[in-house]
Write a structure and sequence with these properties.
464 residues; mainly alpha; two-stranded antiparallel sheet; 19 helices
Length: 464
């Protein structure tokens, strides 16, 4: 069936309803997606500021959580007079509900395509989906990864405050609070309020999780030693980790796939040369190479892109591609020996056409498996570098730096500073690995790709 024939079949009631629902879902939050793209790409401060002015339905301005508790009058300035905790919880719940609804609508769109527009009544992908729907460990990983993605995309709206107020320029913003001594509403700068609400591990100097400070601000994860809200930093740090991970795995995946196709198709000396380059790259101690390149290139223009995020992504990609290449080289070699590849050559197809049509589709699944596992390794690697002071530059938040800040207070009442970001790192990395396991088992339930050596290589090959 041609593309034109498929397009002619689109004006059906079911398709129109799905498209209308998709538009209604996207339009209210399209500003959040544009803001995410503007912050991730090196477009400059002007583009980021312009994106921030796009109205968003589920935003802090629509559902404010900062207010003043006036005795006898209740909360003033919050959404519907709710307490800051409930207003923040409502906003978070609606955002995750919106994300779940979008994912459900995408699934409904896939079913619509499969039942109405796909030419084949059955494809191997149907079996993959069916097996994955019965894989509980993989589904757990999928839920964790999706929750992480929503946290990263909607980070500015999920935080109780903004990065600008929280860390970059807190003394340029003010907040109102009720002063018990004067019996009146007073005004103080956010920076001064942060100074009075620090968490330093001692009595009177600690704002723990799910508590209010003396200025009526709710802190879901408590505060940092600087008095900044920890949850805001964690949410925005998820965006940084996601950007670096996706960019690094995309670059290394393209390199690994291209070299695997070339190795499988040409073989011989070409394959040997790629093997030598891969072995030479893997023989280097990756952690030392990453640290060395981070220090050497820290003063270049690359280090200024996304607070060093682009540089880190390039470093992890250039040092991690051999693991992905080895993961897909074997399946590519097996497919290259099939009769249909020889038949394609005998018909005179160009090598790139043969590789793209007859080899690439059979290794994409394996690439997805090991890419998912490698993403967890990259997140750990970035956090480790930030913990050592070599990762993302301040004031851009990053989970590893938060763990480093809270490490001296780990055994005090301010334990939350290190424990909460560290726990999230473990959960997210476990989620990516679980998703990789589920996809692996769903792609080929009979193929044993779970040996310790292969899984270890995939999980650590990009920074673990």
């Amino acid at each position: 069936m041609t593309v034109r024939t498929r397009l002619d079949r689109i004006p059906t009631s079911a398709t129109r309803a799905w498209l209308a629902g998709a538009v209604l879902l996207i339009l209210p939050e399209v500003g959040a997606l544009i803001q995410f793209a503007a912050s991730a790409l090196p477009l400059g401060e002007t583009a980021v500021a312009a994106a921030d002015r796009i109205p968003v339905l589920l935003s802090r301005e629509r559902i404010p959580n900062q207010g003043t508790l006036v005795p006898g009058e209740g909360w003033q300035g919050t959404f519907l007079g709710l307490s800051p905790a409930r207003a923040w919880g409502l906003r978070v719940g609606l955002i995750y509900l919106y994300g779940a609804l979008c994912l459900y609508w995408i699934w409904r769109g896939y079913l619509l395509y499969r039942n109405r527009y796909r030419t084949a009544s059955w494809t191997p992908f149907d079996d993959v989906v069916s097996r994955f729907r019965g894989h509980r460990w993989g589904q757990f990983g999928l839920l964790v990864v999706l929750a992480f993605l929503i946290l990263a995309v909607f980070a500015p709206a999920l935080g109780p405050t903004t990065l600008e107020q929280n860390a970059i320029d807190p003394y340029s913003y003010e907040l109102d609070y009720y002063d018990d001594d004067t019996g009146d509403i007073e005004t103080i700068t956010v920076g001064a309020a942060n100074t009075d609400t620090t968490s330093q591990g001692i009595e009177g100097r600690n704002v723990g999780p799910l508590t209010y400070d003396q200025y009526d601000r709710f802190h879901p994860f408590g505060t940092l030693p600087s008095g900044q809200d920890l949850f805001t930093q964690v949410a925005l740090g998820a965006r940084v980790s996601l950007f670096i991970g996706l960019l690094a795995i995309t670059i290394s995946g393209v390199v690994a796939t291209s070299l695997a196709l070339i190795s499988a198709y040409y073989g011989g000396l070409v394959d040997l040369a790629i093997v030598l380059v891969s072995d030479a790259t893997q023989s280097l101690p990756q952690l030392l190479v990453v640290i060395l390149l981070s220090v050497v290139l820290s003063q270049t223009w690359l280090a200024g892109l996304y607070s060093g995020g682009v540089l880190l992504a390039l470093i992890f990609a250039l040092t991690g591609w051999p693991s992905l290449w080895r993961a897909v080289r074997g399946p590519a070699l097996q497919v290259s020996e099939r009769t249909w590849v020889d038949a394609a050559d005998s018909y005179g197809l160009a090598p790139k056409t043969t590789m793209r049509r007859h080899i690439l589709p059979y290794i994409v699944g394996y690439l997805m498996v090991y890419a998912s596992m490698s993403l967890g390794g990259i997140i750990i690697g970035v956090s480790g570098l930030s913990f050592l002071g070599l990762g993302i530059s301040s004031p851009t938040p990053e989970w590893g730096r938060l763990v480093d800040v809270g490490q001296p207070l780990l055994t005090t009442m301010s334990w939350h500073i290190a424990v909460l970001p560290g726990t999230l790192i473990v959960i997210v990395v476990t989620g990516f690995n679980a998703l990789g396991d589920g996809v692996r088992d769903a792609i080929d339930a009979e193929t044993d790709l779970s040996s310790e050596e292969e899984t270890s290589a995939a999980a650590s090959g990009a920074g673990g």
